[in-house]
Amino acid sequence: MLPPPQYSQTWSRSSTPLSCDTTLPLPPKLEPGQIPERAIDAPSGSRVNIINAISGGSNEPVLETKRQRKEYFRTVSHVSEGKCFRTTWSHVPISFTQADLRLQHYPHNDPLVIRANIGKNSVHFAGNDVGRILVDNGSSADILVWQCFVKMGFTETTLHKSPYPLIGFGGKRIEALGKIELNVTFGEGAAQRTEAITFDVVDINYPYNAIFGRNTLVKFAAVIHQSYLCMKLPSAGGIITVFGNQEEARRCEDNASIGNKNVHVIETPNEDNEAANSEEPEKLGGGIPGGTHEEGAIVRRCA
User: Fold this and answer.
1) Which residue, 80, 128, 197, 284, has most beta carbons within 10 Å?
2) Element housing 253 (H / E)
3) What is the DSSP string of 29-97?
4) Does the pTM of the predicted model rise above 0.70?
5) Cβ(184)–Cβ(192) below 8 Å
6) pLDDT in tens, 264-294
């Protein structure tokens, strides 16, 4: 048996920590919600570009007094777990699969441009087949362009006064001609859903006929898959799938981006544009209450 090894020195843990020149400083302590400063931040006084979404419009909450406004902003700024745990359609699961991918070009940077039926009711049972509708969840307002409004058979006498202006069209302040509540319908047959939407009608030169903002998306409980250019919403007859038109979206964006890409600039309409965009309604078969059809029912189209 070998004898135990003999050590000439005995090691012990020192009570004094060793100094090291490469020790990194501790990160600054941040308060909850505080954003850390970055070394690459621009110096004070430099110009910062601010991009605002479309805001205002008739869907904004009516806050007539200063106290109501303060209470509203105090409520939305308060961080809490929330009080709404269930909605009318929250029990309906919505998912997307490869079958929902029907694009001609991918990857892309195209907006979601769809068609919908607007204005269907007991009098105008066929409604209006409206195309070139921009789905914009950054807009607090639902917009209907005057030219499309006229093609749908409405007049200015049907409008009600709009309480708030629209802000965000190219940074300009736009006064709406008025507001109107119209039924918006998606789907067909049993899988059909209709909701009443309040639109602000504006007289502008715009590549789209209408804009569906956050109010429409919330009312329909719609879910958007932007990369698929696809939108789904629940109904009593099942999930309704709405596909965007990629080619139409690119044509609209080309018309809107002559000077600035993806920036929609509002201009005063001229006579040439009005003459070029004037179209007559088409006579097509349309549905009437009870599921029957009447020959010669007028479905106005805003292409």
Assistant:
1) 128
2) helix 246-256
3) P--TTPPPP-TTSPPTT---------EESTTS----SHHHHHHHHHHHH-----S----SSTTS-----
4) no
5) no
6) 433 334 444 444 444 443 433 333 333 333 4
